[in-house]
Structure formats: structure tokens, C-alpha cells
Amino acid sequence: MFNPTTPLESAIAAGDADQTLSLLRSETPEQRRSHRAGLLRMLKSLEDAGWKVATGTWTGDSIDQQELSLSIAIALCGTARDVMDARVDIDLLIELGREFHPRCLDELADTFLKASPNRIEAVQQLIGAGLVSRPDTDDYILGLIALPRVIRSTQGLKALFDADPGLRPLLLRVFEIEGTTECSLASSDQYNRVHGLDWVTLLLSMADDGLTTRAELLDLTLGALEKDWPQYRSGWFSRFHAVLDPDAATLRARLPRYLALCASRIPPTVALALQALKTMDLAAPIDADALLNALRPVMASSIKGQLEAAMKLLDRLVARQPERRLSTSSLVAMALLHDSAAAQASVLERLKSWGVDQATRQQLSDFVATVAAVNRPQLLQLIGEAPTAVAADVNASAAHASPSAPCAASSPLPTAHPLDDARRLPRFDDLHELVECIAHVFENATDVDAFERCVAELVRITPLAEDDRPLFGPVRKHAARVKPLLPRELARLLIYVLDGVRTPGYANQDHGGNLSPVESLLNERIDALMDLAAQGRGLVPLSAPTHQGGYIAAEAFIDRVAQHGAANAVSTELEQVAGLLRLMPIVGHDEAPALRARARALVDAPLTRALRYALGDELTPDTHRELFAAAARIRHPREDDLVLDGCHPNLGPDGALMARPTWRVHTHLHRYGDKTTTYYDLQVDTPPVPAQTPSTRLAVRRHPPGPNAREHYRWWSFAGIDEGAVRYSATLLPSDPEAFFADGVRAVGNNLDWSEAQWQNRAYLDRLLDPVTAMTPMACLLLVLALFGKEPGQTAIAVDAWVAAHTEGRLSSAQLLVEPLTVLIASPLVKPARLHKSLQAALRIDARMQALVFELLCAAVTVNPEGPPRDMALLLSLLLELKVDGARPLPPDVQSSLSQMKLSGQAKQLRAQLLA
Question: What is the CA radius of gyration of the chain?
């Protein structure tokens, strides 16, 4: 509720725009500025009221007039930032500006554009009205880039050009800056579908109208390409260069620039330069020295097409100047670093044809250890007269780099244990350390272990001594501003501990309208911890992990139950269930009898009985089904509890009976008009969660609430779209990550082509890197899926996780990966070329992966020989390399499949080599 205290505020509250304007006309600029503080309070009050309240100062029947009156006052009394925050109508601002020329206009254009380039239309209207000067800043150029996408109308853009004749020639300045993630020439044209408003059309029309020339546009394009902006943004300029389509004479006039572009780090830029050099060389030969120097960096390119294009230029050079053969051979030899055996073979053929001198032979000897095994005999033949000692060293190096022994011969590292001392979460030494950790969580929203440490300590130290409260001042101030899940839930608990105020929690929803179950559960857990803290017993919560990844040592949990009982502390059922699910299973361990004996000594209570059941004690489950459902997951990890199922049937997946997710690739058609599009989805099915399942049945609630149906374009997800929520969800039942990885399979498997940026999905893959993570069926499926992924960062994590799991002995059999691989490779969901890239990356990391990769490739080529997938040649080339390098025989079923396979081109040649 806002109470007016001045005539101006009363006029605004009354919605009297004429009176508001009259009062301000009678004042000097200095007098108007004195109203600013009160007007901002009015604006805050109006925003808090939601602009639609029907009682109090802001009444529903005059709200529009009140808003108009306030806008007039802020425009004449406020700063440029005030005008932007108040969203003053631009037409009103222009009208007022012409009469008053308020001080806000002096900085309004810069303020608008610093906030967002999408405000360029308003800035241009002000420029066209003569009220502001044209900014000479990068922000203005960024606004120009956004202009077509903002206007979305050719008529609207023409009106701006007519109002500001100096605008259109300035469009050439868009070549000067890179742009941003949200605003660049590439993104503007990608998302703007209005005909005639793409930047290619706009720029070419300027040349047609005489405002520029195609030559100038070409020079500006080359200038942008020379800056080596990121590929997505620089790719627009490469495409624009193709549209300009300069002839050989135009290109020749800029020969030094194209030669220099061969050293670009952006692949499309290099491809453009090579094509331009080809066009020029065909018209008139390029100087040999200049060409050789320019192509030197291309010889180290990882892109096979660029390498081939460069070598064809060198073919023509050697054909017309045979005396250049040896120097060209020395240059081309660098390309033997390429991963492709076919590319290496192409290089070796040229070296054989052109000849090599002694210096080049010595250079070639360095490549014996890295060149593909199928090409090594030809390379050794070229080396020819290399000294015996050098040849011996090279052969020894090659043998070390590419061992032919099976992977099983290498000793895996000792398997880590979840309760290793190195994984124990340390206690805080003092409150200063706690404050630092809280600040760390506020800035690192995905550190679950740090979050759990802070939560447990805050509960333990409540009530906080008055002398200690000032220590928390900085983090208390920050607590009101944090947004991600873990920081904001920690902030809720912190505010309660310091101020005694319970702020409500909330759960985010994804774009499909699905609330995150994990966020709702964490809200409930933090509320429960507030209740425990309010009791002031100085206790560590039952659910607080003792070790990384969410694990609780059984002996620690027994101690906590005893301490809570002795203090008569009351914990919610959610806290008790959460603690039980985090227990490290002990069934079959040496210390199990002693731990059971300690648990039997506890005071009899429902939690005590559930704990004894979890530890494997002989007793019958009682009526507390939620506690015993949690205990069953620890007593029978990844197994069924038939006793509990007999007492309490139909508890749901991962209640008494373990969930056994199944998966399939689903094909569905979408028809729009006369066009039909085929989509492929990866569906993960589990038994349905029973209706009205309590939220405290945590293990069950990790599964979809009903049929695995797609809502809008996003699959149901237990964790939602917050990365911290994903990582937290893995700690609810750390000893059985199968449901967690099933969630990851849904997320990653339905976004392999990166049609939507889902950065939170890396949290599923990071869990595979943990040396204590069991490679369950869903974990293996997730790993294989990620090896087919498009996003390089996530694929790199998958490759690292695969190598780590193999080295650590967590992948007991290649069959764990073979089964999902063969199903996926037979489906249209995945692209074999990406798998080939991932397999090569794994071999570069650890050559001991050879036998495993060979086995996977053998399985892949036996899938559907009548209709092999595209890019089969890549898989066959790697299979041939491993066969030759390790002298490995092809299994009979692989030979049979290869002989039946319908192949052509290079794949057909590779088959002949494999079967020879």
C-alpha cells in the first residue's frame, strides 16, 4: 500500500494524467528531479501489486491512467535507467521529449542498448525523432545486428530507414564486431524467417542500390574471417563469401589474404581459402614458395577433406614444377599425423611417387610409432636406408605405443570403496570454515558434498550464539539473491538459523510444464531440518552423508539413531527414510555381525527395527512400510525382497521389488499437410508407480509417475533441468544408481543431435567417472549413447569414463557394452561416424583399450549385413587397423557377416583387406 505525500503523488494515485503533466510543467528541471525518490517508491509499490490489484492505492478501474501518470512523471523526473525500468511507452517518451527534452534522454540510447540489443527499435525511433544522438559504440552495432530480427517486418524496417536516412549506410558496421551468444549475424539469420529480412539480402540490396559495392562487401567479409571468431559466428561470413561468388580475377587481387587464411583455426574458413586458391591456381599458377608456405599449417589439419584439397593443389604444383618434388614431400610428410588410415595412405602414395631425400627419411622415422599398422610396412619401405639403430628404436616405440596383448593382460587399478578414508566428508574446525563453505556453495551450485556438509553443520550449531552471528553477515546478505536449487535451499536453512524466519521453498518446472520432483523433495527435507534445528539438540541430521556421493557408514548411522533417541529428538519420516537409503550395504561383509549386534542394543522403535532389517537382521517387517521399503533396498541391493513383498505387496518399482528398466527405440510419424516427418525416440519403461504413493517412498518416487509419455517436447525427468538437482538426485540411493542412470538415458538418448542445449545432462555422465559407481545396465547404456553424442564436451566425458571404468575393472565384460551397442547401431537413432571418433579418442588415451574396441567393432559389423548403416567404412577401417596391429583373427561370425554385407567404394576395399 502506497500513501501519497505530495500533490504530484496524489495526482498519479488518482490517475489524473493531465494534472500530473500540469504540475510538472510548472516546475524547473531541478524541482522535477527532487521527485525521483518518491516516484521510484510508487513504481515499486505498483510492481509489487502486480499491476492488477483491485483494492488500495492501485485500483482496477483506473490502473491504466495511474500507469500513464506515473510514466509521465518518471520520464520527466527520472534517469535513463528509471525510464527503462518503468517501461515507459516510446511514443509517450517522444512526445514528452519534444516538449521538455528531459535529462533522461542524454543517456537513454546507451542505457537501452547496454541492457539489450533488442531495444534498438526504440533507440532508432528516438534517433529518427531527433531526440538523441547516434551512439558510436559496440552496443549500437550489436543493436544493428539485431535490428531485422527485432523489426520482423520489411515495412517496419523501411520506415526506420526513411526516418533516419543515415541508418542504412551504417549497416556495413555489422562486419566490425563478433556479436554474442544471443546476437550475431549467424543467429539473426538462423532464427529470422521473414523473407527479405536476412542479412544476406539486406547487404546485397545495398550493393544493388549503390550504397556499397560487392568488392567492398568481399573485403569486409575477409576482414571478419581474418579475426578467427568462433566457428558458429564466422561460419556466416564463409557462407556470405559463397553468395558473393567472386571470380578468379577478383580473388587474385586478394591472393595474400587467402594464403593467410589457410592458417585459420576455423575449419570452414580454411575450406573457403583452399577453394579460392584452387580457383586461382586453375586460372593462373600461384607462386610455388607462397603456396608451400601457406599450406604448411593445413598439413596438420585433422579434417580429411582439407588435407585432400591441399594435396591436390600440391599435385598440380609438382606436375608443373617437378624440381619441387623433394621439398613438397618434406611438407606433405607432416600429414602422417592424421588419424585416418586412408589419409595416411594417400600421403604415402604421394611420397612414393615424388621421392624422399635423407632428411625426409629421418623425418618419417618419427612417424612409425603413430602411423596406422596397415600403413606401417609402406612407411618402413620409404625409410629404406634408415640407420639400424634408429629403426630398432622406432620399432620398440611402436610396440610400446600399440601393444597387441589383450586388455585382460593389463592389471586394473584397485577398486575404490565408497567408505574409503579419502572419501570421508570432514567436519568443520570452526565457524569461519563453515562460512567459507557456505559462500563456496553459493558460488558453486553443483557441489552436493559441500552442500550436505553445510546443511548438517547448520542444524548441529542451532541455536547460534549471539556473538557468532556477525560472522554470517556476508553470506546472509548473499542468501537473498541466490537462484539455483542447492544454494537457495541452503539459503533457506541459513535464514532460518539466523533469523528464525521460514521462507517457502519452490520447485522449478521444465518447458514441458513438469515440476522437478527432486526440488519438491529437497524443499520438504529442508523444512524437516528446520524442525530438527528448532529443537536445539545439537544433533547431526540422520540423512547427512558421512562420505562423498551421499553414502552413510552404518556405524555412524547407528550412533546417530542412539543420540537422537537419548535426546528425545523428533525426526520426520522423510528424514528417517532418506538416512536409511543412504546407508552403505553391509550384507556379506565381515563387520556385519558386530553392526547388527550394536543395532539390537538400540531402544526399540520403528526406525530401529527398519535399521536392523536393513543390516540383515532376522525380523519380520512391521506396518511401517515406508521405512521397511527403504531398508529393503539396503538389505537386498539390486535384488527383490520377497519377504517384504509378501507383507506389503504393490509398493512400486524399487520398493520391495527392484525396478528393472527396459528400453527401446520408438519410431513415430508427424504429418503436416502433405509432408511427413519421421522421429526416433528412446523410451525407457519401468513398472508404473502406484497412485497416491507417499513422497517419503523415495526410491519408488525416482521413477515416472505413469506411462512414459512425452509431455510437449521434453521427457519426464526426476531431477528436472537444474544441474545441481541432477547431482543431488544421484545421492538419494547411492548404492543403486540404476534409476538415476535411467533418467540420464532418457535425457541424453533423446538429445544426441544436440537439438537443444541441455548442459545439465553432463551431471549424469560425470557420475560414471566416480570409481565407486557400479556399471549397471542403464549406466552401460548411457555410456554407449554418449559415445554417439554430438556435443563434444559430453562425448569427451563419456570417453574418459569408459577408459576409467575399464582401467579400474568396473567393466567386467565387454558384453555389458555389446548388447546396447548392437541394438543402437541397428537403429536410425545413432550415427556410426561419431562412434568411430569416440573409439579413436579412447585408443589415444589408453592403448590397452584395443582388445575391447576390437570386440565392440566385431559386434557392430555383424548387425544387419543386408543393410549396413552409413559410415560403415569408418568402422571397418578401424577394425582393420586393430586386426593388423594386434595380429587378431576375425571371428567366424564376423567373417560371415562381412562376406554378406552390401558395400561399395572404400568400404568394399576395406572388406577385401579384412578378409584377405
Answer: 35
